[in-house]
Amino acid sequence: MTSDQDDDADLFRSAVGPVRKLRDVTPPPASRPKPKPRARMAERDEAAARDEFRHALDATLVESGDVLSYRRDVLPPRVLQRLRRGEIAVQDEVDLHGADTREAEALLRAFLAHARDHDAACVRIIHGKGLHGGGPGPFSSRDVPVLKNLVDRLLRQRADVLGFHSAPPTQGGTGAVLVLLAPRRSGSA
């Protein structure tokens, strides 16, 4: 068998011809590690969705005295009626007064996550009536309550919100909203 290998090596050398050894080359200096890949398309899509959410001004904007109300199909109408009358105990609340739209959105998202993590079923969000509104932001207008519209749109898009209704007059009226949250699934931590 070694003769076959020797024959193959001789055949290769005769086919290639004379060769010369390359001198040793020093390896290039160590470069910085490559950056971790980023999902740039996903980041752009999320940014576009946030912008669309913020700039989705249309005829559905609520006004100062308007009542906020929303119910998912899984929530029985009777439960929303109880919420509207203030018969469901509020377990936590957040007051968004004085926050601009970005701060209010971040605060609201963090509050809802905290409430859900602590198994709160009903929470109150105080957004104000928008009588002193205006200022910079996607809903900026003297006639439109900025935070109220932000709260309305954000709550409608969250899967963990079963329903909400403006609070009864004794709990803030149209300047606050009572929110029913879906229970956490037993598998989530």
Automatic annotation (TrEMBL):
Residues in Smr domain copies: 94-182
InterPro entries membership: Smr_dom, Smr_dom_sf
Region (Disordered): 1-47
Keywords in alphabetical order: Endonuclease, Hydrolase, Nuclease
Record-level Gene Ontology MF annotations: endonuclease activity
PANTHER family: DNA ENDONUCLEASE SMRA-RELATED
Protein name: DNA-nicking Smr family endonuclease
